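Data deposition worksheet. Section B asks for the primary sequence of the deposited chain exactly as it was used as input, without tags or linkers unless they were present during the calculation. Section C holds the resulting structure in token form. Section D is free text for depositor observations; keep each observation to a single sentence. Incomplete worksheets are returned to the depositor.
Section A, Depositor: J.P.
Section B:
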Amino acid sequence: MAIHTHGVMAVDWEERINFERLRNQRLDRIKRVLAASEAGALLCFDMNNVRYITATHIGTWAQDKVARFTLLPQNDEPILWDFGSAAKHHQLYAPWLDGAERSRPGVSMLRGTISPEMGRAEKVARWIKDELEQRGLAHDPVAIDIVEPPVLFALQKAGITVIDGQQMMLEARKIKTVDEISLLTHAASMVDAAYDHLYEKLRPGVRENDLVGLVSDFLYQHGSEMVEGVNAISGERCNPHPHVASDRMLRPGDPAYFDILHSYMGYRTCYYRTFAVGSASQAQVDAYAKCRDLLDHAISLIKPGVTTAEVVEVWPKAQEFGFPDEELAFALQYGHGLGLNIWEKPIFSRLFSFDHPEVIEEGMVFALETFWPASDGWSAARIEEELVVTKDGCEIISRFPAEELMIAGPKYYTALGDLPGVRETESNYNNGRVFPDGKPGVPGAPVAADAVGRDGKR
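Section C:
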């Protein structure tokens, strides 16, 4: 194990996460990518890109507002326009922004809440053009990650050529710094503990949304910045995968799988685990084994120089697990980068990777996830591991046990001993009896000497 897990406090007696180094290395990376591009400046409205460049954050409520923005000109430092008094806060507490000169008040259109006739789009365009003209960059393209249409139109009307900046940001962010890896590892360790907590609480009568609340409460109490989602899926909802939790109540013999997505200091997790409640059918055990085998095969291939196409080649075609095409099976056998976003580069998918393979590099952090439907037609298994690419392979940073299907919930006892962990959901298939009409016992099992059928005959 080469990747350390640190305490969350800053101390004078041990080198831990170095946030000054984190800020500097992130900014240096995007400056290098910008320098190699045709763009004169990079303009970002995506909150995660704003954070990557400026190391500022004003709460998860701002994530979807498209309100704050930053301009990074060639050969210069970023300028941040922020949400009202947040600009003053950064002037006081974010010295790397050099005070009022680079931390300014100013919002965009708040997803149209500030309507076009208010002139805000034109004002934003003037601010940007002024900065470009002062630096002799007014005739160079500006790369933008995401933007509201009125702002885009105003920039173009001001004579600014707009090009795609999202790919520039993703290119800068695909290789993680040592501190980013530490933050991602700590975020994963919090999910390790959340799964242990969840495992203790899984039992019949608990609802999926109860478990969402349980995990969210645990993570927030332990320092999570945002719980993006707890994908809690159980019973017949497991196949096909609906990707959203419900208020369904867990029942004995249910499969239940979870994806825990949260953020620690901005760095995300995507981390599936599957359990069975009280017991599992043989079909569920077999599905889990297949799902695990697919995942382990992919992990065994990971090292620098391998392509995403080589990895997805070992995963089954959509038709092999019940889907007519790869579009409908998308994200079931899947891989994606992790960082300040839940999905970053590289991407692993039979839908894309054969035609557009990406080379795996040391320092990438990504998650690989697999799915397999059970032969019963309604249950399924879902497993995911997060890993860091090392110089000669990879290291797994998601540590909650997943090598075999785990049984959660209370232990049950019969008059003859423990209730088996592997059993069919319907009790009448577990008594070892075969009746004259072939119902309802287990096919092929011996007839018990005292077996009495529904007609009263032995």
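Section D:
The two ends are 62 Å apart (CA to CA).
The first strand starts at residue 41 and ends at 44.
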